[in-house]
């Protein structure tokens, strides 16, 4: 099944090919009604993000591009991984688009790394994008305290012109600081969880600065939203994948490894792992602990470090190979290798 450039191929997962480790599509009738019901439930706030207007955001980004060589993004979890994923997918590695800054994501709290990064940057040509929905994320605000001191020492009172804050529209320490010191600000919608916020200013501000077309991103999101509310798994790739993984989970295969073969999708796997773990791993009152364990891998690199375990180790894993970024022909052969490994019982 396919929607636009998204194609989900389940043919080689059939139980008739893989034996007991494959999918029995006749069982999907049992869980199908329950999952279809989920499609008709309350619409979450993030589902409305593709409809937003971004003209003002784009104009602001265009006004800043020429004045900065480097963009330092301070954020953790969904506030950092989404932008990393977009940069990895749409900006050439180890370079930048002409007239746009290089991206440096500071998410881990590592004083040594941050110190070495700031030594290499010119504060007069650096823009700092600090992102925290709550406005008080300890790791982000600790890093911002260091970067803020670096900017103030170099630029004096006018340092706030080199800062753009993305946070709650009304609440939190960052909002108060931005108001007091005159930072440019963008709002995170209150009804959008941080891990789902890549299509809000959390992801769109860095995307626009990096030269990624924000309007095209939202247009693609609208197309996928349309595709993924269709109540027919044969036409809805997200519903089909949910059914497949649900059956694997019930069969005891509770580690899900996403293995892209295009380097441009490598950070997508990391973003997937965060979305998956933080969403499905949340304990709900009155329920047993739940949540398949996500694993990010990179083909062919991890074929030479993890695949042996997938093939000959415990049969508790599901592999999702991805290809893209103009490498379909090369990767088709590698996908067949993975499918062959699964036929052997992986």
Task: Walk me through what this model shows.
Helix content is 43%, strand content 13%. By secondary structure, it is of the alpha/beta class. Strands 4-3-5-6-7 form a five-stranded parallel sheet, sandwiched between helices. Strands 9-8-10 form a three-stranded parallel sheet, with helices on one face. The chain has a two-stranded antiparallel ribbon with strand order 1-2. The two termini are 24 Å apart.
What key phrases describe this protein's structure?
single chain; 346 residues; alpha/beta; 13 helices; 43% helix; elongated; disordered C terminus
In short:
This protein is of the alpha/beta class.
Overall mean pLDDT:
87
Residue runs with pLDDT of under 50 for 5 or more positions? 326-346
Structural class: alpha/beta
Structural Rg = 22 Å
Topology order in helix (H) and strand (E) letters:
EEHHHEHEHEHEHEHHHEHEHEH
Specify the overall morphology. Answer: elongated
What gap, in angstroms, lies between the N and C termini?
24 Å
Count every helix, treating DSSP H or I runs of 4 or more residues as helices.
13
Binned strand content:
5-15%
Query: In which range does the helix fraction lie?
Result: 40-55%
- For the biggest β-sheet, the strand order reads 4-3-5-6-7
Largest sheet: 5 strands, parallel
Number of strands: 10
